[in-house]
Amino acid sequence: MGLDLVAWVAAEAGLPLLDEAPLRPNEAASALLGEARPDSLEAACGALFGQRPAEIDRVLSDARRGTPRMLHEGGYALLVLPASPGRARLLLLPPNASRAGALAARLELVELAAATAHELGNALGAIAGWAQIARRRGGAEAMVEALGVIEQTATSAHQSARAMLSVARGEDGDALVPIHMSALVHEVARLLAPKAAAQSVRIETQVDEGMHVRGTRAAALTIVWNLAQNAVEASPPGGLVRLMLQRAGPEVRFIVEDEGEGIPPDAVERLFQPYVTTKRDGTGLGLPLVRRAVTQLGGQIRVGTAGPRGARFEVTLRRVRLSARPSEPPPSDPRGSGLRVRSTLRGARVLVVDDDPATRDMVRTALALQGARVVATDDPEQVLEADLGYDLAVVDLALAGLRGDRLVAALRRRGLVRRVLLMSGADPPSDAASGGEPDRWLRKPFGVDDLIAAAQAVLAERRRASSGSRAR
Predict the structure, then answer these.
(1) Given this model, what pLDDT does residue 359 score?
(2) How far is Cα 437 from Cα 442, in angstroms, rounded to an integer?
């Protein structure tokens, strides 16, 4: 993978890290070794602690086979980690408990960031594939189909990102709802079609219709998407990937089979360890995310072979029977996506301030399609110099030049804004500027419907307040 997260955390926290073949100590480890120049991890432990720890040979052997271990020596906790097949690395955690706790918290956040990047990378790959299809095919029908798939993929990525951010904030995740697994398997097969076609791989679906499980859509999508994508990537040109969903009494079985090289028996036990991968460009995150999602949904996952060669993954989940229409929202349709003009935004003067061009353009376009008169900029100073009035300001909190709440406070002191939405992916600041509190927070990442609903709500509140004042 491009970024060595363990090495990055060790460097940021000042922790000794030693890699082998050849032995490579980082700066902190070199300082501990001093003049010593050991040629192996075993010898390095002898130099560091005066003697080789009794268990070091066994734990290094385990790590070289893919199983991480921990032992304690000389006041340190020694994390012995798999590096690559046949190689290990040694990370020394400090004896100070508070530093160790801070490191653990940092490692959790790094893993969360990596997982989020992995899931968003999957979605962006599908979006790029369908954009290419639309460009090559041409015609209105192909464009509408591609836009529908792109919107659907972006919505799924949005849900996954929000779920990850909820974990980072310590919040409860999305509510558990019935998930239409049959539709989800068909959806993923369609999303992966451009990738499969580029590799001359066929995807075949065998789905019992009407199968539902209880959970979150983000977790179910993680399972289906990652297993299906891995199968496509493992298959040779001309290969076949089978996605099967079967009713099995009170359970649902999701099975993925490919015609690749299969999984060596000695590699099965470490398949689900983070950052362990047999693919040249792999991240080693897909299968750990799958296992976590399966556990979240109360299921089980098994690994085996498909025929004479190839891999087979089988996920078993509890099936739910629906007595009424499922509460999971249906996939969105770009021809009816909610971008129709509504009276609360028609004619409203709206200011948008965000230094991220993608977010700024999305907010501006979405509100303009509702009939608002929108001014969008990335420059807070320009806003203050213009001295224009607005019905609504939609402002990013983390502006580069002037923090969003301070810009809002300045606008309010001059009487230039009536209602405010502050956009942020973080919690509200503890030192918020007086007068900079928004009428409503808009949590990033958000969708078009979230934006429009929030803008309508704060403008409706203003109009109700104005009506009440006139009545009195």
Answers:
(1) 81
(2) 12
Residues 352, 377 contacting (CB under 8 angstroms) = yes
The Cα 25–Cα 33 span in angstroms is 9
Which tokens belong to 49?
Answer: 């602690």
CATH 3.40.50.1370 fits 338-471, yes or no: no
Peptide bond into 22 cis (omega under 30): yes
Residues 6+ apart with CB under 8 A from 114: 5, 274, 283, 285
Splitting the chain (472 residues) into consecutive groups of 10 residues, what average pLDDT does each group show? 64 84 88 88 88 83 81 80 82 63 51 53 60 64 65 64 56 70 89 84 92 87 88 91 94 93 73 57 65 88 81 93 52 42 76 85 85 90 87 90 89 93 82 90 81 90 57 46
Decide if 111 contacts 8 (C-beta within 8 A).
Answer: no
How far, rounded to the nearest angstrom, does the alpha carbon of residue 192 sit from its chain's CA centroid? 18
Q: Where are the domains of the chain?
A: 5-95, 105-318, 338-471
Q: What is the pTM of this model?
A: 0.49
| Separation of alpha carbons 246 and 250, rounded Å | 11
CATH architecture of 105-318: 2-Layer Sandwich (3.30)
Which of these CATH numbers, 3.90.550, 3.30.160, 3.30.450, 3.30.310, describes 5-95?
Answer: 3.30.450
For the stretch 110-114, contacts whose Cβ atoms lie closer than 8 Å and that sit 24 or more positions apart, written own/partner, are 110/5, 110/8, 110/9, 111/5, 111/274, 112/164, 112/167, 112/168, 114/5, 114/274, 114/283, 114/285
Distance CA 240, CA 253 (A): 20
> Which phi and psi angles does 25 have, rounded to 5°?
-85, 145
